[in-house]
Amino acid sequence: MKPNRYGFIYYEENLKNNNLCISSFDRDWVHTGTIQLTEGMNVWDFEFNRQGTHIAASISPKNLVDQQYMFREIHLIDIQSGNMKKISANQGKLGNYVFSPNGKTLAYTAASTINDHAVSQVYIVSLDEGIVTNLTPEKFKGHVTWVSWRNNEEVLYLSEEGVYPKLNLVSVKGGKRNVILDASASGIIFDAPEFNDDFTQFVFTGSTPADYVNIYAWNGEDEPRRITDINPQLKEKVLGRQELIRYNARDEREIEGLLICPVGYEGGKKYPLIVYVHGGPESHHSNGWLSRYSTPGQVMAGKGYMVLYPNYRASTGYGVDFAMEGFMDPAGKEFDDIADGIEYLISEKGADRARVGLAGGSYGGYASGWFATYYTSYVRAVCMFVGISDNISRRGTTDIPYEELYVHSGKRLEKQWQMSLERSPIYWAHQNKTATLIYGGAADTRVHPSQSLELYRRMKMNDHPAVRLVQYPGEGHGNSRQPGRIDVLYRQMEWFDWYVRDLNPLDGPMPRLDISDKYGLDW
């Protein structure tokens, strides 16, 4: 019917569920039958136990991304009988899950409550009795992000603690954890490992401030050993020194961030500053490789900029209490922490107050819009990538409305109209004195492209002389393809060079629109 223009869109209806089925084959691989195990629900992922008798599956009522975020629960399925029962006790976000070697216990990671904006805890559930136990350290100043098993009696889990991850062991009976690998000692920001059954050989990917990513091996005792050399070209580059900084916010709360110093940095000199704000805000920066196409810290350090990556309040890695300080307080203490970080670098590290730029994507794009409008006196230029500009219309156009309600806003929009309006960059757009580059995917379902258009239109209607909107066809929430990534990288650099480094006037010509000579195309 689509070729005849009958391919209508029935929004969030007419959904097709993902179901679990088991197909049987004889010894000659001739198909002998298929049994469907689930119906009337959506299966997102699943794990077999080693015995091959049961499947654990994360299931939600509907096949919608918002349901994946907030309403997945783990069900245990008996393969022989087809019987199924819910076994997890999580409310809200769910991480990974895995059977113990003997198949009697399941370990999983999940949020602490439905209002917890990220996976933060490690749980086990006895499959016979259904008893759920939280093995996370009490008042833990970090976030648990992944779990596995050493054996039937010990759980292995990965935690993010400040700017360094740790690998931990804990007994199924609870008690004190044993940290077996700490990135603050090795300097390698590692991911969840693969390991053998006798727990004597691990492999994982890892990065350092000077290396994007490589594969490492570890025997469980000595220092991890790099076994690949994926980025040999980096040895030829002069990189800016990366360091952990700590500063006090205006209410004396200690905030951490990562600073990349300009190449050739000298104390006592003034340097232009770029601040890269992470999204989420359920995320954080670790002290590894930080440069990406939209946050190219080392590239900017090579051009003479000082670069800050702040872990502002609401970031993960510092405990649930720290993360919850952003709950029902958008653009409050979160973005005040960023402003205070700018002040710290000006007073202590040589950042030039007159030459500050800020960029970020998603929630970091929200920060960009906030600093372009409410905090316009702090920054001379911003680059707002797939960012939020209107908290009222955003809640009506995002594909994760329940996630936004439960872990961010906390109340229905009808009870937050005025607060939502006043915490929106469009509300303050009339006072913007900041050069504002706005860009994002034209097919973004998370932060609708209209969010970019609203801020652009408000600024234009207030006769702002230095605003530009660029949208990327076919791209969603962040650019996944090379053309859009190249454009973001070079367009951002030229915007900051023009307005921050070179201090060109806002009421003069803007940077060039056509930058196709940077794309590397052979016409």
Main attributes of the structure:
single chain; 523 residues; alpha+beta; Neuraminidase; Rossmann fold; eight-stranded mixed beta sheet; 11 helices
Topology:
Blueprint: E1 21-25, E2 31-36, E3 42-48, E4 54-60, H1 65-70, E5 73-78, E6 84-86, E7 94-99, E8 105-110, E9 121-126, E10 132-134, E11 143-151, E12 154-161, E13 164-171, E14 178-182, H2 183-186, E15 189-190, E16 194-195, E17 202-208, E18 211-218, E19 225-226, E20 242-248, E21 254-260, E22 271-277, H3 297-302, E23 306-311, H4 320-323, H5 333-348, E24 351-361, H6 363-373, E25 381-385, H7 391-397, H8 401-409, H9 417-422, E26 435-441, H10 449-461, E27 467-472, H11 482-501
Query: CATH topology of the largest domain, anyone?
Result: Rossmann fold
Q: Give the second-level CATH assignment, the architecture of the largest domain.
A: 3-Layer(aba) Sandwich
CATH secondary-structure class of the largest domain:
Alpha Beta
Q: Which regions are unreliable across 5 or more consecutive residues at pLDDT < 50?
A: none
Please characterize this protein's 3D structure.
The protein folds into two domains: 170 residues, TolB, C-terminal domain (Neuraminidase); 281 residues, Alpha/Beta hydrolase fold, catalytic domain (Rossmann fold, 3-Layer(aba) Sandwich), CATH 3.40.50.1820. It contains eleven helices and 27 strands. An eight-stranded mixed sheet has the order 20-21-23-22-24-25-26-27, with helices on both faces. Strands 15, 16, 17, 18 and 19 form a five-stranded antiparallel sheet that branches. A hairpin with a 6-residue loop joins β13 and β14. The protein is globular. 45% of the residues are buried.
